[in-house]
Write a structure and sequence with these properties.
By secondary structure, this protein is of the alpha/beta class. The protein has five helices and seven strands.
């Protein structure tokens, strides 16, 4: 059990995605207790480099990779936001299109897509994909039809809670359409 963490449906979707993609590297933004780190390691095997980022302190981890595994942690005082990391020091540019980026950090999908594409990352897996009214501006939020009569759209990101116009929201949707090849929501396997 992973109270307040990733449940069975998302865990399977992440495991399946990582297993099918067979990445050279994995970036995990949002570690919580470490369940997804363990799950990713099971899916990709011992030779894949995993970079785990979370502002929470290391002592919060229930699972921590052993020294033999290729897992680097950027937690607590060592944390740096995924959009601000110097990826040139960690992952060669030519390998970034073979990197899976797992986002479970409750940040705006628009901001994350912009930051990650600017760094050459193209395979994004987004956990916090709630509909309108949740704690982040998610893919589902952007891509779903808006309720009739809605005049503004809530926008949530780190330290930002505001309403944006329908036009701004539609521009965000157009941006995703122009920059995403595939958008897929896994169906629930356990209900």
């Amino acid at each position: 059990q992973n109270v307040n963490g990733m449940g069975a449906n998302h865990a399977f979707a992440l495991w399946f995605t990582a297993r099918a993609l067979k990445p050279k590297y994995v970036i995990e933004s949002g570690v919580y207790h470490g369940q997804s780190t363990w799950l990713l390691r099971q899916a990709v095997g011992p030779e894949v480099g995993i970079f785990s980022l979370d502002p929470e302190k290391t002592t919060d981890l229930v699972y921590r990779a052993n020294d033999m595994e290729k897992t680097r942690y950027f937690l607590g005082e060592d944390f740096e936001d995924i959009g601000k990391m110097d990826w040139d020091l960690l992952i060669p540019l030519e390998d970034r299109n073979q990197t899976l980026v797992m986002l479970d950090d409750h940040m705006s999908c628009i901001r994350r897509v912009q930051e990650l594409l600017a760094n050459g990352f193209v395979h994004l897996w987004y956990d916090d994909n709630w509909r309108i009214g949740s704690d982040c501006y998610s893919f589902s939020w952007v891509c779903a039809s808006l309720p009739l009569g809605m005049a503004t759209v809530p926008y949530r990101d780190e330290g930002v809670a505001k309403n944006i116009t329908i036009q701004e929201h539609e521009e965000n949707l157009a941006y995703l359409h122009a920059h995403m090849q595939t958008y897929f929501e896994f169906p629930a396997i356990f209900d």
